[in-house]
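WARN no homologs supplied; continuing
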Amino acid sequence: MHGFARTLNGAAVTAVLGALVAGMVGPVRAQGAQAGGGQPPAEAQTQKKLKDQGEYDIYNSVIKDITAQNFTKALTDLDTWKQKYPESDYRDDRLYFYIQAYNGTNQPAKVLDAASELLSKDLKTAFPDPKQQLQILYPVTFNAAKIAASGSTATPTPEELATGEKAAHQLADFAASYFTAANKPAAASDADWAKARAQVEDVAKAALVTLAMYPGTEAMKANPKDPANCAKAEPVFVKALQEYPDSATVGWALAGALRCQQVQHPDKVPAAIYEYARAAAIDPTLGGTADPKAIQNYVNQVYTAYHGSDEGLKEFQQAAAKAPMPPPDFKLASATEVAQEKEAQFEKSNPQLALWMKVKGQLSDTNGQQYFDSQLKDAAVPKLKGTLVEAKPACHAKELLVAVPEPGQQSTLQPEITLKLDAPTTGKPTAGAEIEWEGVPSAFSREPFMLTMDTEKAKIDGLKEEHCGPAAPARKGARKK
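OK structure emitted
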């Protein structure tokens, strides 16, 4: 279910607000007919009159029903009142009671239908007591959002949505004007009075957000993973987010609508991740409807899956929290783009190693021999760099076995290239020396991996040689020839 209903059903109504909303019949009854007289107080006679004793009896029964919270019987009595006295001076009060009774019997659509006529008037004129205004606006706002929430099976009409939106706006205005120090009951603490106002404002705002999102949530309700439904919902959520930029609920919904179009529109995925990240940054509870840890874990998951790692996520979320929509220059690199950028930087800083890694990758592939025969053999290869592992023979070497280590490699170096020299070395090549050379590939073995290159000794840079030392003395007793 959408966050609205869960937020309000899960939140305890403050004692002060409960008293204001629950005490719904007091103000009306004070204007009602007096027992045995059949007429309202004298000060109200110039405005409204009960037509006869029969209307008084029904009126009095309705008040008793509502006071006892017998809402089913109240509806029966209200229907009788409406049938027998359709043009009653107390028509507005009757609609007021209908709202309470329909709300009490969980009939949201009928709450809105009953409220429609009242909200077409100046509510302050029809009901001067602000408590009555609250007792109308609060249930109407709640029920409008209730049937607009994604988990509702009801389908509100455009008129019902309009009534709900109007009530929610008026409820927000009411909270700002009514919950002042001057109107605070003497028995209520400042903290409780502030909590009551906050709850009314929360109801109004949550309802407005839910109603703004309704066409989008309705489009996605049948199948939230259908890209066509998501495409219909997207502009609705965009508009709602523009109206309510601090709503994490709207941002999260927009993110879902964008991401479900990723097959057809992969370019929308970065914006989806932006909205996910922003929602988690500004309110990871999504209006009190979600586990903040689960929400942040999900953000980590989608960010890492797209970007290739969680690198930069913290800064990304901080930036996203500043604006409801991605800025025009917004960019989130994909894992492929990150890898390409790193490869480009690596090639720039390590050109020789990068060249060798590409060559080695081709040779190690299943078609490595074909690549060697068709493209590499007898071809000029740019200068490479490696580490001398072994010379053969150790003195006056004719072959050099070379490894090409990767940056930071800690494992034992394994020869990958054999350099066949045009002339033997004059001394003993020093193992571990870093050398550079130019050569021509002449042979290749995939198992074990070894590329043989012909090179000129004079074209090897960095080669260090030690003196081979005197020849070993002849063994005693060796026969002279």
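Residues 190-221 form the longest helix (32 residues).
OK
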